[in-house]
Amino acid sequence: MFSRLRLENFKAWLDPEDITLRPLTMLLGTNSSGKSSLIQSLLLLKQTARSPDRTVHLNLGGDELNDLFNFGSFEDVLNHSAESPRLFSIEFDFDNRGASRIHKGSFGCSYGQTSSGSVAVQALTLKAEGRQFKAIRREKGAFSILVDDEQLPRAKGRNYAPERSIAFSADAIAVLDKEGQLLEDLSLAIRQELDRTIYLGPLRRKPERDYPWNKSKPGDVGSDGRGAVDALLASTLLRGDEQNYVVDGVSRWLRHMGVADKLEVRQQGRSNRYELIVHREGVACNLRDVGIGVSQVLPVLVVSYFAPKGSTILLEEPEIHLHPLAQSVLAELFVDVSMERGVQFIVETHSEHLFRRMQTLIAKENTSATDVAMYFVKRNGRSAKLCTLEIDDFGRVKNWPDGFFGDALGETREQARLMFERQKTLQQ
Fold first, then answer.
1. Of 16, 45, 406, 71, nearest to 191 (Cα)?
2. Beta carbons within 10 angstroms of residue 60's beta carbon
């Protein structure tokens, strides 16, 4: 999982600030405050790391079929208040038990614009096991390779340019000899961490009346949830130890939310088309014929069980179109799945109900303040600012920001004032 994130001059984030990430991290705040930029920084690295062109320095997107997000140009990513040097940077720490030999490490990279207008790495720093490796851009696209605190580079040249932001070139690994193996393992671990990152955005596809199935398991659910139904079909129709695992998990949480009793995959006659049937109070309906909230939360529930163990799931507005009780149950979903499957959730939300239930879960000791991080993001001029919510063991917030969830107490006072004034008028 990711344990730290740091952005500088990246979109809304002007000043560098370390953000601690926990198994469950919640980002709250006003619209256009910078919450989504935190998530987008990881998406930018993910789509760069999986780019088919290994020489690319940063993939800003534009391919609607293969990219997660279209960032536009360098100027669109660089904070408008950034001064010289005109660079933006992304850093993160990770701590995970994956297939790679490296379990903990750090990534840091700064980016600038070349004379031709393309984005180029200015400095790449990778750290693990007490060692540090740097690739620093020099003149005419040449890079210097430095190790630890050494002042003199091990090598210099254009053939030492980093690949896909996260990896040193084959020539750089070769020139480092035995240390090159550690560096190669570290790049692999970073790639795996990004590969395990799954994103589900706030705009999800509307349900169809029926679906074809190609008799295979999808790679992921997609940023708009387009693969969620394929994952449900595969869970039901493919035989194996995990048959019905995803469907059963989804049904359980739909029931807990009070929006359905069960979800069923039903074949249409002898065709290769299937429909999703929602059961509630003895009535069975096609997914298309029930409230939009069910179809919109479905990808959230599916990805929670379909994502491989140890994944990081990035969610934007998982509560969309859900009634208050169902929104609050999402907090229980995140806590239970995170503990059961070792999944990290980074959630951008506007839901007070979700937040309040998380407070209650901390108070009930279903989770702890050390496993949950909550942040309020606000704008200060052209820069985003982060307020770390200090939560005690009883779920109480010690430092409520102004305008956190509106002014509920003020609304109550105003209602009481108007009631007394009206009663006084009636008595006259």
1. 45
2. 19
For the chain, which residues make up each domain, given as ranges? 2-14+34-197, 206-306
Q: Could you give the CA distance from residue 149 to residue 98 in angstroms, rounded to a whole number?
A: 29
How many H-runs (helices) and E-runs (strands) does the chain carry? 10, 18
Q: What is the pTM of this model?
A: 0.92
Evaluate whether 279 touches 166 at the Cβ level (below 8 Å): no
Contacts with 376 (C-beta within 8 Å, 6 or more apart), sequence order = 28, 29, 386, 387, 389, 401, 404
Structure confidence by residue, pLDDT tens digits, 128-146:
999 999 999 998 899 999 9
- Tens-digit pLDDT profile for residues 146-173: 999 999 999 999 999 999 999 999 999 9
d(CA 339, CA 251): 19
Positive or negative CA dihedral for 292, 295, 300, 305? positive
> Which is nearest to 51 in space by CA: 133, 114, 119, 3?
119
